[in-house]
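Let's practice the habit of predicting before peeking. Look at the sequence and jot down your guess about where helices and strands might fall. Then scroll down.
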Amino acid sequence: MKVTVDQDKCCGAGTCVLLEPAVFDQRDEDGIVELLDPAPAEKLWPTVREAATVCPAAAISVTEDE
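Done guessing? Here is the structure:
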């Protein structure tokens, strides 16, 4: 799995951080998403997928390994 974020789309809702703080964080100054781990461990994949699905700004992209 490869994760990318589009900080220009991010609205700072923070749902991703609540779901998976090992992969996502927020900048202190404006709450915009920061990607901590672009290739998370397999055990984190379900919550990373959920974070991408529930992101209100669609700022998180997940690419599955083939």
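How did you do? The radius of gyration is 11 Å.
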